[in-house]
Amino acid sequence: MLRNWRDLQSLTYLTALPLLVAWQWRHGFSWPLYAAVLFLTLGVGVIHHNHAHLPMWHSRWLNRQGDFWLTLLQGHPTYVFHATHVANHHRYRHGPQDIVRTYRFGDHNHLAGYLLHPLQAVPVLYPVFVAWLRQLQRRDPAALRYCQLQYAAVLMLWGSLAWLDWQKWLLLVLIPQLHGLHWLLATNYLQHAHADGHSRINYARNFEGWVNPLLFNIGLHTAHHEHPRAHWSELTALHQRYRSQVDPRLNAGGLLPYMCRTFLLSLVLPRHRSHSLMAPPETH
């Protein structure tokens, strides 16, 4: 009943993460397994994103179960993608009305900006979540209850695990979830910092290499923005259509080499510093 058989990879990640946490809860901490948990929190964030754009299942009931599973694994309700990411970010594509446009906090692209971006975005996002829930209260109380149930599920899970052993809950559950959420928000910075929010096509950065087979083609961002309802497995082919259309500086190669050049080497080698594609504001 999956829409696409490639989501067997998604189901593998969604199963492996709680199993690795449970094994360490019972048998003790393991650095290799913990590293795998931290990686899988990135995968869960991308799966959450993909599921918001195109639900994994044909069955509405299974999609609802998937919502709750993702909510529990990520530690945050799934509705938030609809409130901000789909309704705003994809609508305005890093433009002046995009509430999480990176240049809202300064038109820069460096390590401090990358690390701070999630912390800067949260105070902007949460008022939108509250406004979204208030709208649901007026026009669709059943949908509001569904969102409230997601919050309740997270709090019940956290409370139960913390009651059993708060130290294990902190180390094995909460810290990995916060790690995943930080990456989820910081990805916006990687994909858009110093891109042109006024451009029809140069609003996003693309990454190639191992990040895509491991993390569901998350690096092929222009193709995703142009085809938000396309299944993630289709983005490889779609990327070839747009690769030559975007500014060459936005085809950044591998993710980790890009981060190394832009955030570390640039501190001592000026040629690796990023430069904004945004024209001065007065020209627009």
Descriptive notes:
- There is one protein chain.
- This protein has one domain.
- The chain is 63% helix and 2% strand.
- It has 284 residues and is mainly alpha-helical.
- The protein is globular, with a radius of gyration of 19 Å.
- The termini are far apart.
- The longest helix has 29 residues, at 111-139.
- Helix 1 packs antiparallel against helix 2, helix 5 crosses helix 6 and helix 6 crosses helix 7 (166-192).
- The mean pLDDT is 95.
- The protein is built from eleven helices and two strands.
- A two-stranded parallel ribbon has the order 1-2.
Uncertain residue ranges: none
How many individual β-strands? 2
Q: How many individual domains?
A: 1
In terms of structural class, how would the helical and strand content be classed?
mainly alpha
Radius of gyration: 19 Å
Strand content: under 5%
Give the H and E element order: HHHHHHHEHHHEH
Distance between the first and last residues' Cα: 48 Å
Q: Specify the overall morphology.
A: globular
How much helix is in the residues?
Answer: 55-70%
Across the major sheet, the strand order is: 1-2
Secondary-structure blueprint of this entry?
Blueprint: H1 8-27, H2 31-53, H3 60-74, H4 80-92, H5 111-139, H6 141-164, H7 166-192, E1 206-208, H8 211-214, H9 221-226, H10 235-242, E2 251-254, H11 255-264
Parallel strand pairs: 1-2
Helix pairs in contact: 1-2, 2-3, 2-7, 3-6, 5-6, 5-7, 6-7
